[in-house]
Each structure stands twice: as structure tokens, then as C-alpha cells.
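User: Can you recover a sequence for this backbone? Please restate the input before giving your answer.

Assistant: Of course. Working from this structure:
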């Protein structure tokens, strides 16, 4: 059913992203942090007249309360305080003050955390309008500001509204970084993800293939190439173009094997991802050798670390990864 296909694709996309240098959750967190940083720099203006001492005391109180709630990981309480802080700064300093815009970005980030995606989108949209007014519609600042809109729209499945944003991002990446750049390749890949979500697989694979070609030309490390290869290979597999997919998976395995000596956990994770693709894709014959290789890598590394330092804090994580790998290979006895 379409619902199941979408669920599978979301899971596959999560798996692909998880094998990149940053995990999916870290990636989402970094996007908002970077957007906030760029927004603060891009929207900086002459400092307005400072608020009264009474208002400053209230602002300080709210800021402290907000920090305490964030440390306690209480986002639903924190978002209420963030709104008070944003409203007070807007009232005292005006909507165009840098402090107000910083508060807006902080508030919208908490709105995202608590699931109020449309409210967050409206704030980000207002920030983008301000960037367009100040720097121009084709500016670098607007290119960065467009990224703010993506998360809220994806979260609401507003795919049609994402299309012009991605196309505009591609055009701006081409203008500012050039067609042979990582930024342009990333913009193509992101648009391909949208096309894939709309079941436009042929158009999506064209975006992915073009991005892979650029990445291979400009990448400075194998990690970047592996990520681009995974996207294309998984899409070929989805389109039932198995020979093309297997050829790319073979390249991924070769690159991962070359990293075993320098980045063993990342290499094992990449091998595990390919094994999982084969396993869930009905090719246990291709999955089994990779599953065994992964368990062997973890077993040897655990033995080495136990000999060198039995109290190494990294050991529990590796043992857990080994158990998970056994479970994935349906070797429940060793997993237990």
C-alpha cells in the first residue's frame, strides 16, 4: 500500500542518513543551530535604545528560566517562556531589533521541538522576508534563510510548497558556489529526496546521479562519496534496477573496507547498512557475508580493547553494536 511504501522509504532514508558522518537527529539539530547563527549575523542591525532597568530585569529572569528548563529538557514548558521572552523583546525593542530576531529563532526552534510546526514556519517565513528585503532575493543570506523553511514544511508533509523552495535553493547554490561544488550537489540531492517522496522516481534518480557525479569530482574524503553512492544505490534498488544497485553497493563495500584500519566503527556501520539493504531486499545470499564480516570486525576490536584496557568506556557501546549485528543476522543465540 502507498502508506507502507512511504514508511519503508522514510526508514530507508533514515538508514542512509544514519550512515553519514552525522546521525539524523544530530543533522536536524545542526541545521537549526547553523540557521540560527547565520540568521543572527545576516540580520544584525544598529543596536536600538536599551530597555529600562525594570524590563532588563524581567528579560534576565525569563532568560534564566528558559535556560533552566532547557537544561531540564522540558521543551513544553520552555516554549511558553520563550514566547514571553519573544513578545517582551518585540514590545520593547521592536520586531527588527537583533535581540528580537534572536528570540524569534529560539522560540521557533522550541516550537519545532514541541510539534507546532506551522507556528515555527510562520516565524521562519518572516525572517526570510526580512532577509530578502535587506539583501535581495538572490543573495547568499536568502540562500541560507531558505533552509529554515524546509523542516516545518516536511514535518507537515506540505510537499508542493517545498518544490519551489528546493528549486530556488538549487539556483542560488549554482549562482554562489557554482555547478561543481558540494553545496550544489547537496541541493540536487535534497530536491531528489522530495521527488522520491512524491513517487517521481525517474526524476529523482537524475538528481541523485548528477549529485554523485559532482561529489566524485570534488570530494576530499571517502565518507562524502559513500553517502552519495548510498543514495543512488538505494534508489536503483527501489526501482528494481538491481544490477546497477549491486555495482554501487560493491563500490561502497570496497571503500568501507579501506577504512577499517582508520575508522573501524564507521566502516562497520557502512557494511552493516549494505547488509541490511540486501537482507530486507530479499537477497540473504548477499547479506550473509557482509553480516559475518561486521560481527568479525566488532569481535576483534572488542578483544583488542579488552586486552589493552578492560575499563575502556567505549567497550559497552561496541558490545551493544555486536549484539545488534548478531540480531540483524538472525543469530539470536550470540545476540543474547
Amino acid at each position: 500500500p502507498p502508506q507502507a511504501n512511504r514508511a519503508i522509504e522514510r526508514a530507508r532514508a533514515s538508514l542512509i542518513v544514519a550512515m553519514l558522518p552525522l546521525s539524523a537527529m544530530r543533522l536536524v539539530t545542526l541545521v537549526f543551530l547553523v540557521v540560527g547563527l547565520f540568521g543572527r549575523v545576516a540580520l544584525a542591525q544598529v543596536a536600538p535604545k536599551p530597555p529600562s532597568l525594570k524590563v532588563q530585569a524581567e528579560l534576565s529572569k525569563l532568560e534564566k528560566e528558559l535556560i533552566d528548563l532547557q537544561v531540564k529538557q522540558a521543551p513544553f514548558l520552555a516554549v511558553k517562556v520563550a514566547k514571553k521572552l519573544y513578545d517582551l523583546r518585540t514590545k520593547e525593542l521592536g520586531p527588527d531589533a537583533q535581540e528580537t530576531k534572536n528570540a524569534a529563532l529560539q522560540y521557533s526552534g522550541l516550537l519545532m521541538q514541541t510539534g507546532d510546526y506551522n507556528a515555527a514556519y510562520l516565524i521562519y517565513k518572516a525572517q526570510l522576508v526580512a532577509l530578502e528585503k535587506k539583501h535581495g532575493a538572490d543573495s547568499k543570506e536568502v540562500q541560507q534563510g531558505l533552509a529554515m523553511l524546509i523542516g516545518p514544511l516536511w514535518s507537515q508533509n506540505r510537499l508542493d510548497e517545498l518544490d519551489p523552495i528546493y528549486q530556488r535553493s538549487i539556483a542560488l547554490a549554482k549562482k554562489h558556489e557554482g555547478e561543481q561544488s558540494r553545496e550544489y550537489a547537496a541541493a540536487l540531492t535534497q530536491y531528489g529526496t522530495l521527488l522520491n517522496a512524491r513517487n517521481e522516481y525517474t526524476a529523482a534518480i537524475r538528481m541523485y546521479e548528477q549529485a554523485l557525479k559532482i561529489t566524485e569530482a570534488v570530494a576530499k574524503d571517502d565518507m562524502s562519496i559513500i553517502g552519495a553512492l548510498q543514495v543512488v544505490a538505494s534508489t536503483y534498488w527501489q526501482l528494481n534496477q538491481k544490477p546497477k544497485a549491486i555495482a554501487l553497493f560493491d563500490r561502497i563495500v570496497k571503500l568501507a573496507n579501506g577504512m577499517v584500519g582508520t575508522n573501524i566503527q564507521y566502516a562497520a556501520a557502512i557494511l552493516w547498512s549494505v547488509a541490511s539493504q540486501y537482507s530486507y531486499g530479499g537477497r540473504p545470499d548477499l547479506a550473509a557475508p557482509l553480516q559475518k564480516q561486521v560481527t568479525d570486525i566488532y569481535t576483534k576490536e572488542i578483544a583488542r580493547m579488552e586486552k589493552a584496557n578492560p575499563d575502556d568506556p567505549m567497550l559497552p557501546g561496541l558490545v551493544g553494536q555486536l549484539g545488534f549485528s548478531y540480531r540483524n543476522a538472525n543469530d539470536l543465540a550470540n545476540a543474547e
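That completes the design. Residues 1-45 have pLDDT under 50 and may be disordered.
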